[in-house]
Specification:
four-stranded antiparallel β-sheet; 200 residues; 4 helices; 4 strands; alpha+beta
């Protein structure tokens, strides 16, 4: 009788073991599916971009890579996007978007070695995004001080004439870019324009 009693207990234990194995297998499969979904979402999450990372700029150095056709004319170049700052490819664009900014008020200072003074109105331009103009506005006090220092180093002869005016614009552009680079690690000013100049 003991052999007959042991046999039904074995039969009862067998279905419970099968159910437990199936339950554990189902839990493992569900866990693997959830982990795979989380991994997929992390891999496909877009990377946040720095506003200065998108820059529209053409490289003059790439012109030498253009091939010439039989008649000596330039063959059409394969426009591949060159990587910009941050490694993101910048789409090719033949049109530059130029943003202008004019400083409020004038810049007035004495000329070097003279009793005369110079008064100028300035504007500038950039082909980068609006962040550059925002940086100029944010650091306007430091920029004004640097521009006045540049103007104060000029003599009367160094501010007269078109060539001297262009030279002065370049000096001011370099000074502004230097201030911006010191404060925000990026200049971005393409041109400075003297919109008015008075010497008295």
């Amino acid at each position: 009788m003991s052999a007959e009693a042991a046999e039904p207990q074995e039969k009862k234990k067998l279905p419970i073991v099968k159910i437990a194995i199936f339950a554990v297998g189902a839990i493992v499969l569900v866990g693997a599916g959830v982990a795979g979904g989380i991994l997929f979402m992390k891999l496909t999450k877009p990377v946040e971009e720095n506003p200065l990372a998108i820059v529209i700029e053409r490289k003059a150095d790439e012109a030498k890579d253009d091939k010439k056709d039989d008649k000596g004319k330039d063959a059409k170049k394969d426009d591949k996007a060159a990587p910009g700052p941050g490694g993101k490819a910048v789409p090719p664009n033949d049109k530059f978007v130029t943003t202008y900014f004019e400083f409020p008020g004038n810049f007035t200072t004495n000329l070097k070695g003279s009793r005369r003074f110079i008064q100028v109105s300035l504007g500038l331009s950039t082909q980068y995004d609006k962040t550059v103009i925002e940086n100029v506005q944010k650091h306007e006090v430091a920029i004004r001080a640097e521009v006045l220092a540049v103007l104060g180093e000029q003599s009367e002869q160094e501010v007269v004439g078109m060539d001297n005016r262009r030279r002065l614009q370049n000096l001011i552009k370099d000074a502004i870019n230097r201030v911006l680079t010191e404060r925000v690690d990026f200049g971005g000013i393409a041109n400075v324009y003297i919109t008015a100049l008075v010497m008295q």
